[in-house]
Amino acid sequence: MIIIVKSNPDQQQLENLISWLRSMELEIHRSDGMDATVIGLVGDTSEVDADLIASLDIVESVKRVTEPYKKANRKFHPDDTVVDVSGIKLGGGHFQIIAGPCSVESREQICFVASEVRDGGATFLRGGAFKPRTSPYAFQGMRDEGIQLLVEAKKQSGLPIVTEIMDASHLHLFEDVDVIQVGARNMQNFELLKELGAAPQPILLKRGLSNTLEELLMSAEYIMARGNKNIILCERGIRTFETATRNTLDLSAVPLLKSMSHLPVVVDPSHATGIHALVKPMSLAAVAAGADGLMIEVHNDPPRALCDGAQSLTPNYFKTLVQDVMKVKNALI
What we know:
The chain is of the alpha/beta class. The protein is built from ten helices and 14 strands. β7 (96-100), α3 (107-120) and β8 form a beta-alpha-beta unit.
């Protein structure tokens, strides 16, 4: 249930209303906007008398929320959520680019790429330390050593780091990671999501290969229900009957998610297409669709990459992509 409070309400009446609602064992979420205050109620609201609340002098309207996701719902939180990572803001008009290799392969590789993508316009460094692979014989990542190398690259480049977690038992290894990524395969690993709800870092949550937007938001709800409100949603392509690309990039998800939720949305055109030549046009389209950021794979030597070389860009090509992306972004302002 959502209660819209009139502008400049009597503060004593407002506090009395909130106290009364709390006495009904409801969780209260208050959002103070420019023109009104929104009070979101989470819990069993079946016994709440909506007509009685609507009759109060300070109340503009009362609405029941039918969607199963509450905390992630834009109705509860009309203003865009802005995720702040060491002063770098994402969402609410703040656009950022996350770039780096699919996997950390060596100290020289990750530090070189970090320097290159920083100079090319990236504001976050991505790199896989733990790699979920379809084949058990494929490169699985450098694991905890990979995280140590990411931290070293962070110190050298100044870029906050984004890397994927696969198991809650690894959380102690992620203390120096700035943004924890949940990959597509783990989007509905609910026990992991619960643990991440208590993590201090923002969570970048990727959409599953065959999941709906509502299911993505319900996964975000799992994290938010445990207290972590800093969630970044990521569209990375879904599985369809099409085989020309690795996945099918659902760019309609961007404006839809932004209408359904207040959480920022980034797009990963690298994993979505699996083809490096498609990364640039899909990046430009994602920006035009309203994405709050991009996640792009960059490797110093794509043909020899241990993971996903076919979709990785060279540092020089990445720089030209960023220049074109910013032209589109600036044209939309």
